[in-house]
Amino acid sequence: MTSRRGALLTLACGVVRPRTLVTALACLTGCAAAGGHVPSGRPLVPAAVVASIPVDKPPTLLALSSDGSRVFAASSGELSIVRTDTNAVTATVRIAPYSTGVAVTPDGRRVLVNSVSSSRLTVVDVATATVAPDIGLLVDIPPGGFGRITVSPDGRRAYVTNSPKEYLALVDLNAGTTNQFSLDMSPTDVNLAADGRTLYVSGCKDFCTTGTVEVIDAASRQTLRSFEVGPAPYRFALSPNGTRAYTTNLGGPSLSIVDVASGATLATVPVGARPSGLAVSPDGTRVYVAGEQQETLTVVDATHNTVLGTFSIPDNPRDIVLSPDGRRAYVSTQDAVLVLDTQRL
Fold first, then answer.
1. What digits encode the pLDDT tens for the residues 191-206?
2. Which of 91, 158, 225, 233 is 20 to 30 Å from 265 at the Cα level?
3. How many CB atoms lie within 10 A of CB 238?
4. Alpha carbon distance 218, 329 (integer Å)
5. Structural domains of the chain ordered from first start
């Protein structure tokens, strides 16, 4: 039976003798795709491409300001700030290599970035495109292991996953201080309910053959309940009304669709290999999954839990975010951020 850490690395990069989960996340973040293959018969997406925004280095992770005016592409050593009205890079900021998490505060003023080996949270001032004083993250020796980031609706707190050490870093963004919140699982993604009161943490316990989502009260830090998802969950998202949970699973590969109230799995939908990008439309009717290895974008009907279409996107699509009206999808690839018209998908 495969361990939780071994499974993620094997499924992520095809390595047969994995060591740690942090290595797996680093591979998904910083490694070039190994032999990505586009299945025959997949329609390409040129008709849907509104713009292709070149960047100096391959972007990996994306974040979008709440008003939709800026897209932030965190690549290996560089953060590109993109204006969505002109689809152009307006500024670049030097950051640490191999980003593992990126988020923007609700007011759009700060971008938070961490990297595979860093033990500090990089803070970027958007207005000046400069690095502000960073924030230390609690960590034992050796450093690193920090991954996904989510920010509270009031912009006062950030939650950062640390998979190998099995905890969340709780960052006070105003005071610049950090506390540690221990978990009984290796977290790969974290999200907050719209009201900021409930945390959803996805990851693995003893083995990755079945994934877990824990529902945690953000104030008391008590686990309220948990539910199972597919093997080796990597990304997590909630529907806008909070009634459905979605995870992309490296094992399978698949998309798990779960009823939040009951914890029951409503459907398990096959998607492209190495599903590294996940986004839900603002109206909750569609789910988008970027499959990095097979170079696909899968569009799922969230009402009927069926695939509407699977499209080929060259150059290893890595991450995806959606505009506030859902009409634009931003997909990171090896050499550009693609802007897609979702009504043509």
1. 999 999 999 999 999 8
2. 158
3. 19
4. 30
5. 4-344 (2.130.10.10)
